[in-house]
Specification:
- The protein has a single domain, classed as Iron/manganese superoxide dismutase, C-terminal domain (minor pseudopilin epsh fold), CATH 3.55.40.20.
- Helix content is 50%, strand content 9%.
- It contains nine helices and three strands, in the order ααααααβββααα.
- It has helices at residues 2-16, 42-66, 75-80, 87-108, 121-131, 134-147, 198-201, 205-212, 218-226, and strands at residues 152-158, 164-170, 185-191.
- A three-stranded antiparallel beta sheet has the order 2-1-3, with helices on both faces.
- Helix 6 packs antiparallel against helix 8 (205-212).
- It starts with a helix and ends with a helix.
- Bound molecules: manganese (II) ion (MN).
């Protein structure tokens, strides 16, 4: 009994040690790999989450481990203040910190087509106020995603006044970054990198953008909007 207690204490001490090399971790998807089919197939989800997102996490951990001063910063602190990241690791934190934040947000923005739902009344009213109609909002969002040259993201954000805007960012940038030309609080984001849709849609990005609305988790998006209130 005495020995067993000592072993437990020893184990607790080991797990309490800081593990700087693995500051950030890849969380499991909040649904099965095939949950978004047929809009996004299981093979795309497995590669996108298990390889692409995992690589962003691994490379972010390498960047943070290379600069001891970065060890205790949250992901939001890192990407929201890239100016405070030493130049040696700034691009790595921008690309991989952005990649980790964007994909974590993206997985939580989607759900099975049967559970997609609709914007809550308050969010719908804000969409109609700022874009004219729900259809006009989706058309503008799809156009911003389709016209992003190369790789990037399209976002619905709320600015500091609470007004809704559509923003497109290159690569793994996002509207939380201090380097973003336009900043805001993301409410919804779609990944328009080819890896997000190529197996299902090949080069037909507009078809992916149009179909993607079927898997938007409006309950999650509406909760983000509700959380903006003071
Ligand atoms: Mn991606």
């Amino acid at each position: 009994m005495f020995l067993r207690s000592r072993s437990v204490l020893w184990l607790l001490a080991v797990f309490a040690l800081p593990v700087h090399a693995e500051t950030f971790a890849l969380a499991p998807l909040p649904y099965a790999y095939d949950a978004l089919a047929p809009v996004i197939g299981a093979d795309t989800m497995q590669i996108h989450h298990g390889r692409h997102h995992q690589a962003y996490v691994d490379n972010l951990n390498k960047a943070v481990a290379a600069e001891p001063g970065l060890a205790n910063r949250s992901l939001e602190e890192l990407i929201g203040n890239l100016a405070a990241v030493p130049e040696t690791q700034r691009n790595a934190v921008r690309n991989n910190g952005g990649g980790h934040w964007n994909h974590t947000f993206f997985w939580a923005s989607m759900t099975a087509p049967s559970a997609s739902g609709a914007p809550a009344p308050e969010l719908m009213a804000a969409i109609e106020r700022d874009f004219g109609s729900f259809d006009a909002f989706k058309t503008a969002f799809n156009a911003a995603g389709a016209s992003r040259f190369g790789s990037g993201w399209v976002w619905l954000v709320a600015d500091s006044e609470g007004q809704l805007k559509i923003i497109s960012t290159p690569n793994q940038d996002n509207p939380l970054m201090d380097i973003a030309p336009e900043r805001g609080t993301p409410l919804l984001g779609n990944d328009v990198w080819e890896h997000a849709y190529y197996l299902n849609y090949q080069n037909r990005r507009p078809d992916y953008l149009a179909a993607w609305w079927q898997v938007v988790n409006w309950s999650a998006v509406s909760a983000r909007f509700a959380a903006l209130k003071p």
